């Protein structure tokens, strides 16, 4: 980018902006003076390349400028200017949040952390330091050749930051907990611009809060020091069955969560139901992983029931693969409109509850299919079941536990997630309202069977912006999170200026 200074810069900043954008454009100009070459303005190619998000709902926002810091010190300089001038801003890492305004902002400044992408492995191979702008494929491509892995995401371009800060479900969670449970240290820029570390030794409350408590209330994390471990190829199997088999598969899935997975912590799995007329209508899809098994001719015992000949598949694929290849296998294309909603259930309830959710979801699918047909378009609907088995809950308790409020004594939990993909903005409203209604119905059904999870936990990384995520962390954890936010941002600058996502 050409270096621009003084009045020329201010004129350029203001020329690309609406009047109501005036203040943020002045802030952009001030940041450009402090951080020459790290800022881009509308109608330039660097700006367009920052404004790429997984969900089209996010890339529609047009910030007055993007700022792309190279170092934690650059982040601190930008934050000082934004907080001093009271300028609303957003922070983008991997940009994978589905809803608008989560990591981009209209009439404000978006900090894109993409350049904070350094990855370095400690000499003892036990810690990998990862810049906050890295994506999981960057991490695995650095670690696979070394025979190392970390507890991280399962899709290539998802950001390291957002996934860890909200929790982080991984192939390795059965033995090691979620990604947030495997951070040794966070480097964080506070609202004051001060750069601090948070670990089990320093700023312990902040360390606890950043383990699942989300980023946007506490500070901008600029580096994660992650626990790494030796890891070869994983065993992986993907299966697709006709939807009609769900009456057999769901009880098996329930048994796997309650009994099977705790008996083999190296195993990991999730189930996805979808409606795909080209393959005959409703489908059940299942990905199974095992971190140490290597026989491709028969499955590990924990998954044997799903490989029974009485459950004929439409498609199956077994492979031994490194993390990078697995991440690419479930990469989702950019540029469509996206929505996530979720809730969770006490998995100790009978499998009937999980079965009875399916017809409720099918009602939503019928509604959305009709609404899409009316505007000559389509919607891809997914109902996802991902369990948090008792072994995962136990692994989450290391180093003082995380902020999520999930305890082994409350029993395993099933996350029920809705994921929707479409292209026509005319469908936005019906997608959101029907998803809210469905989640309300699932919660009511679970309550009537005594099967709401404790506190009604909602996984932040799969939640819609209107869901009350923090209420699900429990009253005590919510009070502690608020206390930490106040301690590290006493003037509430982040609460006021850092827009989007979930606020305490
Ligand atoms: C295709 C796909 C696959 C997924 N797979 C998984 C999975 O395997 N496991 C799982 O648990 N989840 C998964 N998710 C959910 C994912 O974890 C969340 O969407 C996550 O928030 C994405 O992070 P991001 O950095 O890409 O998003 P962003 O939208 O960039 O960031 C999310 C939020 O975090 C804030 N933030 C970003 N960086 C920082 C930082 N450095 N400091 C403080 N705050 C920050 C942003 O401001 C924003 O509010 C997946 C999502 C998708 C779309």
UniProtKB/TrEMBL annotation:
<dbReference type="Pfam" id="PF01565">
    <property type="entry name" value="FAD_binding_4"/>
</dbReference>
<dbReference type="InterPro" id="IPR016166">
    <property type="entry name" value="FAD-bd_PCMH"/>
</dbReference>
<dbReference type="InterPro" id="IPR050416">
    <property type="entry name" value="FAD-linked_Oxidoreductase"/>
</dbReference>
<keyword id="KW-0274">FAD</keyword>
<comment type="similarity">
    <text>Belongs to the oxygen-dependent FAD-linked oxidoreductase family.</text>
</comment>
<keyword id="KW-0732">Signal</keyword>
<dbReference type="InterPro" id="IPR006094">
    <property type="entry name" value="Oxid_FAD_bind_N"/>
</dbReference>
<dbReference type="GO" id="GO:0071949">
    <property type="term" value="F:FAD binding"/>
</dbReference>
<feature type="domain" description="FAD-binding PCMH-type">
    <location>
        <begin position="59"/>
        <end position="231"/>
    </location>
</feature>
<dbReference type="GO" id="GO:0016491">
    <property type="term" value="F:oxidoreductase activity"/>
</dbReference>
<protein>
    <submittedName>
        <fullName>FAD-binding domain-containing protein</fullName>
    </submittedName>
</protein>
<keyword id="KW-0285">Flavoprotein</keyword>
<dbReference type="InterPro" id="IPR016169">
    <property type="entry name" value="FAD-bd_PCMH_sub2"/>
</dbReference>
<feature type="signal peptide">
    <location>
        <begin position="1"/>
        <end position="20"/>
    </location>
</feature>
<keyword id="KW-0560">Oxidoreductase</keyword>
<dbReference type="InterPro" id="IPR036318">
    <property type="entry name" value="FAD-bd_PCMH-like_sf"/>
</dbReference>
